[in-house]
Design brief:
The complex is a heterodimer. Chain A has one domain: Sodium/glucose cotransporter. Helix content of chain A is 69%, strand content 1%. Chain A has 20 helices and two strands. Chain A has a two-stranded antiparallel sheet. Chain B is mostly helical. A two-stranded antiparallel ribbon of chain B has the order 1-2. The longest helix of chain B is centred in the C-terminal third of the chain and has 46 residues. Classes of the chains: A mainly alpha, B mainly alpha.
Chain lengths: 552, 149
């Protein structure tokens, strides 16, 4: 498949077909360290606030690192580097959106959420609105976002392992990743998840930094030379000959010329989903419950922005480095750009390190998704919807959450194995679209609009969720006619021309979510939510009566 | 000077108007107790929310926050979306060379510094908001003590 990689595998000392590579060794080291942390956390993770929110004792810089580790998925590490390596400047546009999105989190969502909530985003909605319908809808939306995102990550993990560790099958890789994330969450709770994310963030940052330095070293530390090379990247022309392209020129991916004219609008739509979706991603929001107060939540967002921003600036070196040093013709699979660049510049050991970083990246993200999904199921759906907010036995909520993590993990493993040959890249876009169109509108309106009521929240969540899903199904991400001979994992799911022209539905679905929330509010005479607006405003802005840290 | 002031005669019933049966917390709970085990303090509302919401200190905290956050959000949204709009519909303009790079790359890079600077400015501003919020709580505590004397 990849000659470079096949040669890399050391002679088999273990059973046939299994190669012990440095990459495997480093991955095992990561597993051992994280399992030790899980063992340590397991003894502390008793009680609901310890299990769901790490006892609210995480400090600002720790949570900043954990937010970064939770957020920077394989899609951003391997995906953006690959996209820049193949599409140049337009790939870098993603990097910008993923950081700027944190301004919405910082200015609008993080502090009120920490002040007024307990474990999930639905806590903030349930203050003023009728708890059961709102929590049921919010839980549905959370589970949808988390499972879609998780399946995309798991399928990516399986595909990646096949490339990085010859001899380990797709099924084994997916099962391994799934079992590890279940162990972290079920036994270690939020505390173990947090530390897995912190370690991953440190590994990712040091790996990227070292790779960036190696790229600069290749160009004798001259940015002028580096950018000159970016201006002349050899790519295969339409007739097979090599032509030189300027990779800093915008438009290789989203240009009007390559996208039937819809590209620029699609890019704006993507920006909307990123900038408003990040502040509605359940696995990012739950991180703000792990700190002692709103002030620490704020500081942790700023830490996260420093880390995430530095990383995305480094994608310049990772992506354009792969484009100039390896050239697209020598990269077999787009997502392998960063690991192959590491191999070319840093040799076998560094390749192994970057591969281990990629595993750590995926594991930290799926663990975060698992805990946010199971928290929402146990706290919102089980306790508050089914049992009217009462625990029938002490510790029941945590027990249910543990069972839910196990089920969520098992379902994710099965789905990822089933969907092995299907192109699931659109699922990440879908997760952001749902977060931006369903979650963010109701969070914002609930915090700032006095008249907002239960009917508005149910309409908003429903329309945002349904609208995003329908538009994605009708979009070119799912619908399209492929030429004969396209491999199954690259094929469109529905072989018919797309009915909606944009791959990112945000520009339509976000206004739809807001509109439905407003309409649903106006069409209902329910004014009970107005009586508690004063309470929510005071709590959100002063932190009066907010959940306190438990002493460890 | 009267060293032993007679207790003020209560002008209202001091028994908290709550459903709890006891003032004494049970031992051995790390999680919030179920309703039937709550003490009067836990059951009572911690504050008269409408009164706090109407306090002039609180109104001015909200005004100060809105005066910063609303323009800040408008600014970053416009600054950010200028990038995909310019790159998408004016690619020639954005491809103008500036030294070794082009306008498009510099504008994209500037977004990172815009985000960092805005975050830093907000961090400074928010320290002032924290002070205002602390004033609201301090005033509330003072009036509570006054009432429970």
């Amino acid at each position: 498949m990849i000659p470079l990689l096949a040669a890399a595998a050391e002679p088999a000392a273990l059973p046939a077909g299994f190669h012990f590579t440095p990459a495997l060794g480093m991955f095992l080291a990561f597993v051992v360290v994280t399992l030790a942390i899980t063992y340590w956390s397991a003894r502390k993770s008793t009680g609901a606030s310890n299990f769901f929110a790490a006892g609210r004792g995480i400090t600002g810089w720790q949570n900043g690192l954990a937010v970064a580790g939770d957020y920077m998925s394989a899609a951003s590490f391997l995906g953006i580097a690959g996209m820049i390596a193949f599409k140049g400047y337009d790939g870098f546009m993603y990097s910008v959106g993923w950081l700027v999105a944190y301004l919405t989190v910082l200015l609008v969502v993080a502090e009120p959420l920490r002040n007024a909530g307990k474990y999930t985003m639905a806590d903030v909605l349930a203050y003023r609105l009728s708890p059961r319908p709102v929590r049921a809808m919010a839980s549905l939306s959370t589970l949808t976002v988390s499972t879609f995102y998780m399946i995309a990550q798991m399928v990516g993990a399986g595909a990646l392992v096949k490339l990085l560790l010859p001899g380990v099958s797709y099924e084994a890789a997916v099962t391994g990743v799934g079992v590890l994330m279940i162990v972290y969450v079920v036994f270690g709770g939020m505390l173990a998840t947090t530390w897995v994310q912190i370690i991953k963030a440190v590994l990712l940052m040091s790996g990227s930094l070292f790779l960036s330095v190696l790229v600069l070293n290749h160009f004798d530390f001259s940015l002028a030379k580096f950018f000159e090379a970016i201006g002349n990247v050899p790519v295969a022309g339409p007739d097979g000959t090599i032509v030189h392209r300027d990779f800093l020129r915008p438009g290789l991916k989203f240009g009007a010329a390559v996208t039937n004219g819809w590209g620029p609008l699609d890019q704006v739509s993507l920006g909307l989903a990123l900038v408003f979706g990040t502040a509605g991603l359940p696995h990012v929001l739950v991180r703000f419950y792990t700190v002692p107060d709103a002030k620490t939540a704020r500081v942790s967002v700023v830490w996260a922005m420093a880390i995430i921003g530095s990383f995305y600036i480094m994608t310049t070196f990772l992506g354009f480095g792969a484009a100039t040093i390896l050239t697209p013709a020598n990269i077999s699979v787009e997502n392998m750009s960063a690991p192959l660049l590491a191999k070319a510049l840093g040799g076998e050991t560094f390749f192994a390190f970057i591969s281990a970083v990629a595993f750590a990246t995926i594991l930290a993200v799926v663990a975060g998704l698992t805990i946010s999904a199971s928290t929402s199921f146990a706290h919102d759906f089980y306790t508050n919807v089914l049992h009217h907010g009462r625990e029938r036995a002490p510790g029941e909520e945590v027990r249910i959450a543990r069972i839910a993590s196990f089920v969520v993990g098992a379902v994710a493993i099965l789905l990822a194995i089933k969907l092995q040959t299907i192109n699931v890249a659109f699922l990440v876009g879908l997760a952001f679209a749902v977060a931006a169109s369903a979650n963010l509108p109701v969070i914002v309106l609930s915090l700032f609009w006095k008249r907002f009521n239960t009917s508005g929240a149910v309409w908003g969540l429903g329309a945002g969720l349904l609208g995003s899903i329908v538009l994605i199904i009708l979009s070119p991400s799912v619908m399209g006619v492929d030429p004969a001979g396209t491999p199954a994992d690259k094929m469109h799911l529905i072989q018919s021309p797309a009915l909606f022209p944009l791959t990112n539905p945000g520009i339509v679905s976000i206004p739809l979510g807001f509109l439905a929330a407003c309409l649903g509010t106006m069409l209902s005479n329910d004014r009970t939510s107005e009586t508690k607006f004063a309470e929510l405003t005071v709590r959100a802005n002063t932190g009066l009566g907010s959940e306190k840290a438990t002493a460890h | 000077m009267d060293l032993n002031p007679a207790p003020e005669s209560p002008d209202r019933d001091l028994t908290p108007a709550v459903g709890a049966e006891t003032d004494v917390a049970r031992l051995g709970h790390s999680t919030p107790p179920p309703p039937h085990e709550q003490t009067a303090d836990e059951d009572a509302d911690i504050a008269d929310w409408d009164r706090v919401a109407a306090m002039s200190e609180f109104r001015s905290l909200l005004r100060a926050k809105a005066a910063f956050i609303v323009p800040a959000v408008l600014f970053f949204v416009i600054y950010y979306f200028a990038l995909p709009v310019l790159v998408g519909w004016f690619p020639e303009l954005m491809d103008k060379r500036v030294g070794p790079v082009n306008v498009a790359y510099l504008f994209a890079l500037s977004q990172f510094f815009m985000a960092w600077v805005l975050a830093y400015v907000y961090l400074r501003k928010a320290a002032r908001f924290d002070g205002q919020a602390a004033d609201v709580i301090a005033k509330l505590d003072a009036s509570k003590k006054g009432r429970s004397k």
